[in-house]
Design a protein that fits this description.
Elements (H helix, E strand, L loop, with lengths): L5 H42 L6 H39 L5 H5 L24 H12 L2 H28 L6 H20 L1 H9 L4 H27 L13 H5 L1 H21 L12 H9 L4 H5 L9 H15 L9 H12 L1
Helix pairs in contact: 1-2, 1-8, 2-7, 2-8, 2-10, 4-6, 5-6, 5-7, 5-10, 7-8
Subcellular location: Membrane
InterPro entries: MFS, MFS_Riboflavin_Transporter, MFS_trans_sf
Membrane topology: Multi-pass membrane protein
């Protein structure tokens, strides 16, 4: 197997450097913010414009010590969501490999009539325009579904549609069926999942929306380059040349296995990227579908245990009642302390 060519290595290195720079910048940001706050506080104290307060200073120092940890955890989840967005757009950008795949398409799938000896331009050239139309149809649905079921489930729905559309297209016997599966189903999945990484990325990094958009869209740009090379290696590993615009029969026989492999790769990339999408804790949003399932899964402990939802007795009160009954059973009139005194005795015994 030959080594990876330099043009293939360069985009991957660029993508890794971009993600690493974003992670390092977000790791240093809380420290810089904390340092600036401390400098401003010292300046006000030295000038005499602020009187130091022990309680207030302790509270501020406590908040300052805990703030970087929370922001570091948030930035880590945000960077993972950013990486997931790149993976989703790697799957979305694969639609631009159709010009290369069209040359390996079996002849009977290239025309509406199914005639393998058709003349003129193949009708299969309309596959990519149909994908774009389906994508534009699905893009308004993405934000609407996100308000109803959240960014993760919305991106997951689009990811499954992309993977299933390409995989099922391997069994298509006519161009009409192929267009419905590859163009319509795959295109709608692209439109639904396309905007979800931008939505979550802007919520995690509201002051760096340009960096977020550029990092995510890089997956769309490099996708066609990578998958063009991969698809050619899978269906034509010997690099056979076409004779009179026709390849040998073994090339066409590998068409279904190529689509199944590509569908598995696209679906895996998009599903993993969708699972990495999340909202920051500061984003307060209500999703009706998620709220419905959370309510339906809420445990009904009172009904399961066969008990009434009434307020239980306090521990010291129950113990006091039990000791009173034991004293009466022995025939002696026990002198029991009040519940408050009994609670104090229990605390002293524990110490």
């Amino acid at each position: 197997m030959r080594a990876m060519s330099p043009p293939l290595v360069l985009p991957l290195l660029l993508l890794l450097c971009t993600c690493g720079a974003a992670a390092e910048d977000n790791r240093r940001q809380p420290r810089l913010a904390l340092r600036s706050k401390k400098d401003a506080e010292l300046t006000r104290l030295r000038s005499g414009s602020t009187v130091p307060s022990t309680t207030l200073t302790a509270a501020r120092l406590g908040a300052a010590q805990t703030a970087p940890v929370v922001q570091q955890e948030s930035s880590r989840a945000g960077v993972l969501g950013l990486l997931g967005g790149v993976m989703i757009h790697l799957a979305c950008g694969s639609m631009y490999t159709w010009g290369n795949l069209l040359s390996y398409m079996p002849p009977h799938l290239k025309y509406w009539s199914g005639d393998a000896s058709g003349k003129g331009l193949p009708d299969a050239q309309l596959v990519l325009p149909f994908i774009l139309v389906s994508q534009m149809t699905g893009m308004p649905l993405g934000p609407m579904l996100e308000k109803f079921m959240g960014p993760r489930l919305t991106a997951l729905l689009g990811a499954l549609m992309m993977g299933c559309g390409v995989t099922l297209a391997a069994s298509a016997k006519t161009l009409k069926h192929f267009v419905l599966l590859w163009s319509v189903m795959f295109g709608l999945g692209v439109g639904i999942a396309y905007q979800q990484p931008f939505i979550t990325g802007a919520r995690w990094f509201p002051k760096k929306k340009g960096m977020v958009t550029g990092a995510i869209i890089s997956g769309l740009g490099v996708s066609a380059f990578l998958f063009n090379i991969l698809s050619t290696k899978l269906i034509n590993p010997k690099n056979l040349e076409a004779v009179n615009d026709a390849f040998p029969p073994e090339i066409y026989a590998s068409w279904p296995s190529l689509l199944r492999t590509l569908g598995l790769i696209y679906g895996t990339l998009a599903v993993v990227g969708a699972l990495l999408q999340s909202n920051p804790n500061s984003h307060d949003a209500k999703y009706p579908l998620l709220d419905y399932f959370s309510r339906s899964r809420a445990p009904h402990t009172s009904a399961a245990r066969g008990t009434s939802p009434s307020t239980p007795k306090a521990p010291h009160a129950a113990l006091h009642a039990r000791e009173t009954e034991e004293g009466r059973g022995d025939g002696a009139r026990a002198e029991t302390p009040p519940p408050q005194q009994h609670a104090e005795e229990e605390e002293e015994a524990e110490e």
